[in-house]
Amino acid sequence: MIRRTTFKIIILALLLSVFISACGGSTGEVSPATEGHTDSETTLDGKTLLEERCTACHTLDRIERASMSAAGWGLNVREMVGKGAELNASEQEVLIQYLSITYP
């Protein structure tokens, strides 16, 4: 009985340590070498940004019905960032360009 309980505790501890190491233990700090740059900046295009970030709060249909100039989309995107949309400056520009070409 004691061996079985000890075995379960050891297995649980191992699983927990694997889970913690898989999470990376990041402190959230940005090193100076990568400050302002993320992996998503180089891989995300406007359509992906729209689908991943904007549709968290809005339906795609709502966005597709909208029609704005580049300046209008710029104001709209910056307003959404002010309300909590998670887009850095580079991502905002990519998204604004995509929206203004796709939904003029």
Q: Could you describe the 3D structure shown?
A:
This protein has six helices and no strands. The relative contact order is 0.13. The chain is mainly α. The radius of gyration is 22 Å and the shape is rod-shaped. It has a domain of 55 residues: Cytochrome Bc1 Complex, Chain D, domain 2 (Orthogonal Bundle), CATH 1.10.760. α3 crosses α6 and α5 crosses α6. The longest helix has 22 residues.
CA radius of gyration: 22 Å
Instruction: Tell me the distance between the termini.
Output: 71 Å
Determine the fraction of residues in helical runs and give it as a percent range: 55-70%
Main pleated-sheet profile: none
Q: What is the CATH domain class of the domain at 50-104?
A: Mainly Alpha
Which structural class matches the secondary elements? mainly alpha
Keywords:
104 residues; mainly alpha; Cytochrome Bc1 Complex, Chain D, domain 2; 6 helices; 65% helix; rod-shaped
Topology, please?
Elements: H1 2-23, H2 39-43, H3 46-53, H4 60-65, H5 70-82, H6 89-102
Question: What's a concise summary of this model?
Answer:
The protein is mainly α.
